[in-house]
């Protein structure tokens, strides 16, 4: 059991780092899982790889709480109206959540319809490796194309519903093709339509909340909530570790993108994708 906890801690660290950097948490968990395979059923491991992300999501809620909670009279510069009740509602934050929901619609619909098919046909090292490489190249091309251009959207409030929906379509690509990276796909899409890196990253964090809560709930329902004691310990440990690591990674990324572009992540994705292809190619041959 101690060795299982150690493996879970390592997987939690990997999840906490890779969920927010645009380098694909799925790709890393598949690769790391080859060497640190949990001694659990395939059904549990499939559920674990998704539900462990809840810890990472809670880090977003903690860090951005003031920007996410739409109630409270204090510091409410955009009340819905001047009534006592209206002054408790922050109109700008409610509008932001409506945009998040609009952006989530494409992935939510396709995810519910094709979840089992995607797991069966696309959740494999080959798809992950190709997605890593393709979107790594996309990052480099888009950053070169964007060089010297001033973004048209520099705050969350400037995002329109149309813009949010377009970002959601890019998130759909990540929902279909494991290894694309949900954050990577949405950031690429946002940059293409003139959103600044800071706003693209922040909106991506917000999008993760309903998407990953929904995905986790779906996996938990399918698993059946019938955990053994050791399974529950492993799941909770993974979530706690991914939460703690995510706190540091999110703060690092928000500071990093103020001075740097995303090309380094593009090169990293390409190298990782090639390594995944080489490893599983050799494994298939030998």
From TrEMBL:
Q: According to Swiss-Prot or TrEMBL, what is its membrane topology? A: Multi-pass membrane protein
Please give the Pfam families that the UniProt record associates with this protein. Answer: BacA
For the keyword Cell membrane, the answer is yes
Q: Mind telling me which residue stretches traverse the membrane in this protein? A: 47-65, 93-114, 126-145, 157-179, 199-220, 232-254, 266-285
Stated EC number for the protein is 3.6.1.27
Recorded GO molecular functions are: undecaprenyl-diphosphatase activity
The cellular component terms of Gene Ontology attached to this UniProt record, alphabetical and capped at eight, are:
plasma membrane
Q: Where in the cell is it found?
A: Cell membrane
Q: What is its main location?
A: membrane
Q: Does the keyword Hydrolase apply?
A: yes
Q: Which UniProt keywords apply?
A: Antibiotic resistance, Cell membrane, Cell shape, Cell wall biogenesis/degradation, Hydrolase, Membrane, Peptidoglycan synthesis, Transmembrane, Transmembrane helix
What processes in GO biological process is this protein linked to?
A: cell wall organization; peptidoglycan biosynthetic process; regulation of cell shape; response to antibiotic
Q: Which reaction does it catalyse?
A: di-trans,octa-cis-undecaprenyl diphosphate + H2O = di-trans,octa-cis-undecaprenyl phosphate + phosphate + H(+)
What top-level class of enzyme does the UniProt entry assign? Answer: hydrolase
Family per record:
Belongs to the UppP family.
- Other comments on record: Bacitracin is thought to be involved in the inhibition of peptidoglycan synthesis by sequestering undecaprenyl diphosphate, thereby reducing the pool of lipid carrier available.
Described purpose of this protein according to its UniProt entry? Catalyzes the dephosphorylation of undecaprenyl diphosphate (UPP). Confers resistance to bacitracin.
Q: What is this protein called?
A: Undecaprenyl-diphosphatase
The gene name reads uppP
């Amino acid at each position: 059991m101690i060795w299982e906890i150690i493996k879970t801690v390592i997987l939690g660290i990997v999840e906490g780092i890779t969920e927010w950097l645009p380098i694909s948490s799925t790709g890393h968990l598949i690769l790391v899982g080859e060497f640190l395979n949990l001694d659990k059923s395939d059904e549990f491991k499939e559920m674990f790889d998704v539900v462990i992300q809840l810890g990472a999501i809670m880090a977003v809620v903690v860090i951005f709480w003031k920007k996410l909670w739409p109630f409270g009279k204090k510091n409410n510069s955009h009340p819905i109206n001047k009534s006592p009740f209206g002054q408790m509602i922050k109109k700008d934050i409610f509008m932001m959540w409506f945009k998040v929901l609009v952006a989530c619609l494409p992935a939510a619909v396709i995810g519910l319809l094709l979840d089992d098919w995607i797991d069966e046909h696309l959740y494999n090292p080959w798809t992950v490796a190709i997605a890593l490489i393709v979107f790594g190249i996309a990052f480099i091309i888009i950053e070169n194309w964007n060089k010297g251009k001033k973004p048209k959207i520099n705050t969350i409030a400037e995002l329109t519903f149309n813009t949010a929906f377009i970002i959601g379509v890019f998130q759909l690509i990540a929902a279909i093709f494991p290894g694309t990276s949900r954050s990577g796909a949405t950031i690429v899409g946002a940059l293409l339509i003139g959103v600044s890196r800071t706003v693209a990253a922040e909106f991506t964090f917000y999008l993760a909340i309903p998407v990953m809560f929904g995905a986790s709930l779906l996996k938990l329902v399918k698993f059946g909530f019938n955990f053994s004691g050791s399974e529950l310990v492993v799941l909770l440990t993974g979530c706690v570790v991914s939460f703690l690591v995510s706190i540091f990674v999110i703060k690092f990324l928000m500071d990093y993108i103020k001075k740097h572009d995303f090309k380094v992540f593009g090169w990293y994705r390409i190298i990782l994708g090639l390594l995944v292809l080489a490893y599983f190619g050799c494994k298939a041959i030998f």
